[in-house]
Amino acid sequence: MIVMKFGGSSVGALARVQTVARIIVHETEEKVVVLSAMSGVTDALLKAGSAAAAGTNYQTTYDEIIAKYRSLLEGLGAEERPRADARLTTLAEDLQEVLDAIAAFRFCITRMRDLLVSFGERMICALMPYFLRSLGAASHEVDARTLIVTDDHFGNARVLFGETEAKLAAWKKGLQDVPVITGFIAATSDGMTTTLDRGGSDYTATIIGSGIGAERVEIWTDVNGAMTADPRMIPAARVIDSLTYEEAAEMAYFGAKVLHPLTLLPVAKKKIPVVIKNTFEPHAPGTRISSTSPIVKGVVKTIATRTGLTLINLEGGAFSGHAGSAGKVFTALGRAGVNIIMISQGSSEQSICLVIQHTQNNTAISSLTKEFAREIEDGLMRIIMEENVCVVSVIGDGMKGTPGISGHVFGALGNTQINILAIAQGSSERSISAVITEADRAMALEVLHKEFIKIPLVPAAKKVWM
Question: Which sites bind ATP (predicted)?
Answer without folding.
Answer: 5-8, 221-222, 232, 257-258
